[in-house]
Amino acid sequence: MKSSEILDSWKDIARYLERDIKTCYRWEKELGLPIHRIDDTSSRSNVFAYKSEIDQWLQDRAKNRDVNETTLPQKRRLPLGALLGAAGLIGILLVVYVIWGRFLYSPTPPPLGGIEYPSVFDEIKSLGSVDAERQSEEERALQRLAEDNVDPWELYSQGNYFLEKNTQEANELAAALFLKVIRSEEEFPLAHMGLAQCYLNNVRNLWLPRVEWLDMAEDLVRRARSAARDLPEYYSVIVQIKLLRDSFFDQGTFADAVARAEEAIRKFPNHPRLNYLLGSCYFQRFSRSGDEADLERALDFMKKSYWLNPYALHNLDYAEILMLRLDFAGALEVCDQLKHFDSSGRVRFRMGEIYYFAGDLEVSRLVFEEIRTPLQLRFYSALYLAMISSRKADKDKAQSLLREVEAFFPEGPVLRQRALMQASAYFGLGRDKEGYRHLSALVEDPQYQRNKHLILIYIALDPNFDTPRDKARFNSLLASR
Questions:
Q1: Residue 294: is its pLDDT beyond 50?
Q2: DSSP letter (8 states) at residue 5
Q3: What span, in angstroms and rounded, lies between the C-alpha atoms of 309 and 164?
Q4: Residues 245, 415 contacting (CB under 8 angstroms)
Q5: Residue 95 contacts residue 179 (beta carbons within 8 Å)
Q6: Would you say residue 310 has pLDDT above 90?
Q7: How many C-beta neighbours within 10 Å does residue 122 have?
């Protein structure tokens, strides 16, 4: 099932129907709008919906004439007047770029003497009016964007604040803030780098993994290069672009990424993010080559990054290396520093992984059962719960979870991790045929060689692979490429 078919929040459902969230609540309660919940037993559970089901519901309502024109949403019509009044945005341009691919962006050639941005940024997009108690921090901040705030440094600082939250919604808001800075003051290279980072996050976090985002980020860097080339943020963006081009789109830029990261550290030896990025380069090089010296280098630079800024979310990669080296206590300590500042769910997820590989299955199970959003992490949590059930010989539970994941897991560039986890669960159940099927899919992925030695560590740590571990077929398959 394609992820673009799924609407995984009330906000996305409201956007799709072009109504406010309160109206969607009422339609579900009174008119049977097809809404699903992760936990059917709780009315407060996170929700999701399928576009196809909503479209069919609209057609059925129209046929039965049970909903009049003022109630039934008319697709493709944006009620600008109502949105402007609800949000208090009269006469002010509010910019939010749209997620989940409802609009396709392509970089356009710059006009002489100025900067041109994708046309979608010129349209007003509102989150709709909701009850005050239901408004999130991001929604309230989005309304504050309408205020006559022209201080570029204040806007830039606000953009960085939301950028660090590392959620899709906050990333949208950060992009709006950075773009507002650029439009009021084009000679502001840090805002260019901030907007470029928003674009990179769409790929890195698998929100919209398309190469066009990297093209636009690189275009922003090129435009601001004369003023930004001696900034650490410039190097941060350049290194990430090259790493993402190589790992997602096979464009052969990995060696250049390492060289630029090493150059950056020579210039800015105590910059926390640049230390993290150089550590990430060495970690990826270890994953390709298996050279333990690269793993040690990765650990050193990520450790330095952690001590320079212990509250940055990228420290989760440092926790991963500690976990892989069996320093479970150290990995959990890193996560404990981060968990109170994380709204993305990634810290809790990493803690669940650490408890799993440390053998504390009950705590791991409790952690993964609590994860409800984002939807993608919920699916990965279900896979870990299947792996835990396999290790605890709860076959019915494991098989039920695997069926659920295989029916609903969104398609996309997530094959490697998903296939490895499915293989783990099936081997743990003693269903070797299915285990080998998913392991073969993993090995046949063109990206396998880039991740081979990291994958081998995960397999070595996972007791679910103990049964086939010494078999010739198993080892031959892993070494086949």
A1: yes
A2: G
A3: 12
A4: no
A5: yes
A6: yes
A7: 9
Between helix 232-249 and helix 189-204 the angle, nearest 10°, is: 20
Give the CA radius of gyration of the chain: 24
Strand partners, 2: 411
Structure tokens of 55?
A: 């479209």
| CA pair distance 357, 359, nearest whole angstrom | 5
Closest CA relative to residue 194, chosen from 222, 223, 234: 234
Measured between alpha carbons, how far is 167 from 137 in angstroms, rounded to an integer?
12
Q: Above 80 in pLDDT, residue 422? A: yes
What whole-number distance in Å separates Cα of residue 29 and Cα of residue 25? 6
Per the structure block, which two tokens stand in for 157? 């600082």
d(CA 58, CA 67): 9
Per the CB < 8 A criterion, the answer to whether 257 and 298 are in contact is no
**378: amino acid identity, one letter:** R
What does the angle CA 165 – CA 171 – CA 174 come to, to the nearest 5 degrees? 95
**Total Cβ atoms within 10 A of residue 70:** 5
pLDDT above 90 (res 23): no
Residues 346, 373: Cα–Cα separation, whole Å? 10
3-state SS assignment for residue 282: helix
Q: What is the pTM of this model?
A: 0.71
Amino acid at 153: W
Give residue for tokens 């994941």: 405
Sheet-wide strand order for 36-37: 6-7, 47-50, 36-37
Q: Among 191, 156, 194, 136, which Cα is nearest to 343's? A: 136
**386 backbone φψ class: left, alpha, beta (φ>0; ψ -120 to 50):** alpha
Which has more confidence, 301 or 339? 301
Other beta carbons within 10 angstroms of residue 200's beta carbon come to: 22
Find out whether 20 and 129 touch, Cβ atoms under 8 Å: yes
> Quick check: 213 and 99 in contact, CB under 8 A?
no
CA atoms within 13 A on the CB side of 170: 17
- CB-CB contact of 162 with 127 (8 Å): no
Q: Which residues contact 391 (CB under 8 A, 6 or more apart)?
A: 361, 428, 463, 464
Whose tokens are 């031959």? That residue is: 476
Burial class (CB in 10 A: 0-12, 13-18, 19+), 452: middle
Structure tokens at 10: 């009330």
